[in-house]
Specification:
By secondary structure, this protein is mainly alpha-helical. The protein has 15 helices and no strands. Helix 1 packs antiparallel against helix 6 and helix 4 runs antiparallel to helix 13. The longest helix has 32 residues. The radius of gyration is 20 Å and the shape is globular. The two termini are 14 Å apart. 60% of the residues are buried.
Length: 415
């Protein structure tokens, strides 16, 4: 019996719960770690020095991912992807418990927060390509676009509820959000244990450096994959706002940790609404053009947020930003999955993860550095303006991506 719903398949249901729980916990912890680090730093530092410290916190999460990226993709193509994800979630669970104990101790040291940021970078380096490559193995290929949309919804729900819950819980006491994250990670681990073995594509025999080179070569020569990944990289490096949120909350909007949670969750609210719409109303034709238009809207929304001194306008700008980004993410992820053979998905996903995390963590470093040099407002608005320029340039450099028409599964990939 044919079905268009991925939830008819038990492995995908378990995967969805695991992704939702781990995302909820991870985003909540990242937000709370950033707020706690900035809060502790402001006890002894002025605003710009504390902002610079936030930039290094993002760099601490990115460096392990950058160093491990050549390895983790090969691991995801050679080892059981379920086991990789389980180990990563288990380590994150230990991190959450450690930070709960640290926060309960009342210490003002910053090194535990940076240590966990590094460990998070390591676990994400392994987990992200393994989970991305695992998802297409859990449903028939004809259902894959819908599964990707629902997977995005799960991510966005976690990204919405996580920051809000983290901000509210932090107001009750710093240990509480970490304890909640530990409970969610335990749920995620249990769900991952319920995913049965999946058939992996046979290896072509390459290993070591040759396997790494093969994955990089595939990305470099596939213009649609390369264009989609690199557009996200530069747009988010230049127009990312996450690192600026603690600064805007405390020193521009003059609100607190609860409002930080709502601001951190606003993009995911917009993204979640669009993702839900996409499960019912696919994009149809001209998906490449629609993706570029939404990346441009993402840049403009960043500029609006940067200029805002009103909480509600800031929330609205971030919600639009998230909605626009969701369209880009949906098109990019679907095109990459449909244009990558299963035997290469781990390595291609590792490259994509590196680019995405580079855009997030290096974007935070860029934001913290430029905020320290020119102030947070100019850093945010200028970044949005540059991202708009990158969008226009990439539309000219990658006509294959711009002219992509539909997200239909190619006949050669249908089972």
């Amino acid at each position: 019996m044919k079905t268009s719903s991925p939830f008819h398949f038990q492995p995908f249901r378990a995967f969805f719960v695991a992704r939702l729980g781990s995302t909820f916990a991870q985003v909540m912890m990242v937000v709370v770690i950033g707020w706690q680090a900035y809060d502790l730093a402001r006890l002894s530092m002025p605003t710009r020095e504390a902002a610079f410290l936030l930039g290094f916190l993002g760099l601490a999460q990115f460096l392990p991912l950058f160093l491990l990226s050549p390895i983790v993709g090969v691991v995801a193509d050679r080892m059981d992807r379920r086991v990789i994800a389980r180990i990563a979630v288990a380590v994150e669970l230990l991190c959450a418990l450690s930070l709960a104990a640290f926060s309960a101790s009342g210490s003002t040291a910053l090194w535990p927060l940076f240590t966990v940021a590094v460990l998070f970078g390591v676990t994400r380096a392994f987990a992200s390509p393994a989970l991305s490559a695992l998802a297409p193995n859990l449903v028939p290929v004809a259902v894959l676009p819908t599964a990707i949309a629902w997977n995005s919804i799960g991510f966005q729900i976690g990204a919405v509820v996580g920051p809000v819950t983290g901000g509210l819980a932090y107001d009750f006491g710093p240990p509480l959000p970490y304890a909640l994250a530990a409970a969610l990670l335990l749920l995620s681990f249990i769900a991952l244990m319920r995913i049965p073995p999946v058939r992996m594509a046979p290896s072509n025999g390459t290993s070591g450096v040759a396997a790494v080179r093969e994955g990089l070569s595939y990305v470099r020569h596939n213009r649609i994959v390369l264009g989609a990944i690199s557009l996200d990289l530069f747009a988010v490096i230049l127009a990312g706002t996450n690192a600026m949120l603690p600064i805007y909350v405390r020193d521009i909007l003059h609100v607190g940790a609860a409002e930080l949670g709502w601001l951190r969750g606003a993009p995911a609210i917009g993204a979640g609404c669009i993702a839900l719409w996409l499960t019912r109303r696919p994009l149809g034709h001209r998906v490449g053009q629609k993706m570029f238009l939404n990346v441009g809207l993402f840049a403009l929304s960043t500029m609006a947020f940067g200029l805002s001194t009103n909480l509600w306008l800031s929330l609205a700008s971030l919600a639009v930003l998230g909605a626009a980004d969701m369209v880009s993410v949906y098109v990019r992820q679907t095109l990459i999955q449909l244009h990558t053979p299963d035997s290469m998905r781990g390595r291609v996903s590792a490259v994509a993860t590196l680019f995405v995390s580079a855009s997030n963590e290096l974007g935070e470093f860029r934001a913290g550095l430029t905020a320290a040099l020119v102030g947070p407002v100019l850093a945010t608005v200028g970044g949005g303006f540059l991202a708009l320029g990158i969008t226009i340039l990439w539309a000219r450099l990658f006509p294959e991506l711009r002219d992509a028409d539909t997200l239909d599964v190619p006949e050669s990939l249908r089972s």
